[in-house]
Amino acid sequence: MSASLPNHPSLAVTAKAPTLTEIHDSHADFVWRSLQRLGVPQADLEDALQEVFLVVHKRLKSFDHSSRVTTWLFGIALRVAAAQRRRAHRRYEQPSDAVFEATDASLAANPERGALLRERVSQFEWALDRLGLERRAVFVMYEVEGISAVDIADMLELPVGTVYSRLSTARAEFSAAVQRLEQRAARGKP
User: What is the pTM for the complete model shown?
Assistant: First the structure.
C-alpha cells in the first residue's frame, strides 16, 4: 500500500504494516470466536489460538495485504481447526461441558436469562457440529462473521460458485439440525 505524488516517486508514502503484537491485540478475540465456531473444543482453544499466532508470526512478512487481516486470520484458524480434528487424541477424548462465563452484567443479575442464553449457544454449537468442516467454515465466515463470498473464495482458493454451493448446503443442513432440535424439545427429549 503506497501512494505517491505524481512525478515525485521519492515522496512515496508507505503505510506501516501491523506488527504481530498489534494484530494479536486487535484480533485475538475474533480468532478465539472463529476457532470456537469451527469446532475446536473449549479445552483446546488456548493451544489453538497460540498455534494460529505462531503461524502469523512465521508468515507475517509474506502477508501481502491483498485481503483483510481478518480474512487471512480466519484462513489460518480454519487450517488449525482442521488439523485439530485430524489429531488422533481427539478420537479418545470425551468432551466436557463448556463453562459459561457471563460477560454481561445483566446476564449475571438475571439467572433465567443467562440459562436461556447458555441453552441457545449450546443449540447453535450443536447445529454447527452437524456440518462438515468445509461447509461449516463457509457458513461461519458468511453468516456469522459477515465475510463476502468473493473474499471467502479468495481465501479458500475456490470458485465463487463453490462457495455459494457450500453455503446453500450448509444452510440446509443447519436448518435441518435446528429442526431436529425443535422436534426433540417438543417430544420432551434433551
Answer: 0.61
